[in-house]
Amino acid sequence: MAMRSFVLAGMLCLAAPMALACSQPAGAAGLEAQMIQWINAQRQANGLAALRAEARLGQAAQGHACDMAVRGYFGHQRAGGPDFSARVKATGYRFRTAAENIAKVGAPDVSRAATVWRDSAGHWRNILNPQVSEIGVGVATAGGQVYWVMNVGKPR
Which DSSP helix (H) or strand (E) runs through 40? Predict the structure, then answer.
């Protein structure tokens, strides 16, 4: 029992600096809500149902935003890291279909990230995907950059 506690404590010590190093912009929860509102407005303007916020998708999105910010990369998967599907499944979310958008911009401004996604055919397709019903958004900052992640899915 003592050995297992020691190993667990060691693992927590290794993980703690990464978790503490992640910064979010001021008002992050409000920014995330504004992004979801913008996405739902785009969907409704195109005849699609609004997406419901889903905590596990948000957890996966925030985790990936933090990972990119802390490790200093920009992509859907870091070298040797888990892919999108594995990150979402690790939260306990089981899906029929799911997709991810990422953006890196110079200010914590919803319209800047929204423009990146609107101007990218693949990201726009994810926003207007009629097969998804739930959403989670995460945002993190590092080095003067703001990392946005949107995860959408339809549960099993």
Answer: helix 28-45
Single out the residue of 103, 87, 105, 106 nearest to residue 95, CA to CA: 87
Taking the C-alpha atoms of residue 19 and residue 117, their distance in angstroms, rounded to an integer, is 27
Cα 34 from Cα 43, distance rounded (Å): 14
For residue range 80-124, list pLDDT tens digits in order. Answer: 899 999 999 999 999 999 999 999 999 999 999 999 999 999 999
Look at phi and psi of residue 77 and say left if phi exceeds 0, alpha if psi is from -120 to 50, else beta: beta
Find tokens 């958008």 and name the residue: 101
Q: Cα dist. 122→29, 37, 99 in Å?
A: 26, 20, 10
Which residue in the block uniquely carries the two structure tokens 């739902």? Answer: 40
Alpha-carbon dihedral sign for residues 87, 55, 143, 101: positive
